[in-house]
Design a protein that fits this description.
mainly alpha; 7 helices; 0% strand
Amino acid sequence: MTNQTSSPTPQQEIYDLIIKFVMDSVSGTVSGLCRVMGHKAIKTEKFSNIVLGAVARYFNEIAHSIESRDDDYVNECFDKMSSINLHNGPMHPIDILLLVGNLSFQLINSMHLEQMIIGGTNTDPEAAHQCRMNLYRVHMRSVLTDFSKELVTKLKGCDSKHEHEPLQPGEDLFTLTHE
């Protein structure tokens, strides 16, 4: 008897790629900031704002790279996601990036980063950092699952009338305001 597994739907396939990109982007940003600022310096309520700003800057760079095609990693990721044919066609890379940004900002705002990253008892700084980041990624996955369960069924491609205006040099797709 063979065990048959069904292949994922196009919506599930693009959703998985989007979630991976969100997790890689946010955890990479947090990891980089931890290395630069030091883990103890992160014990601040403003750390989430620092992460939000860094992620927004990164996504603005990605938006320009999508149009200029000057980044092999961005090209590979967004070409793969935008090649998936949904109900009415593929999603445009900028629409995918907007979704990635929305999920990333929700994720960052819903987590208490400064409480998550400080823990750990390992005396080797690199091992402690890796342990914290692994725990952080597990928690990120559970948070993303909680608020994006319905998203997979609602993903749709762009119809032929959907147009995208190119970004102007220096124009930002993502802007943040502080309250």
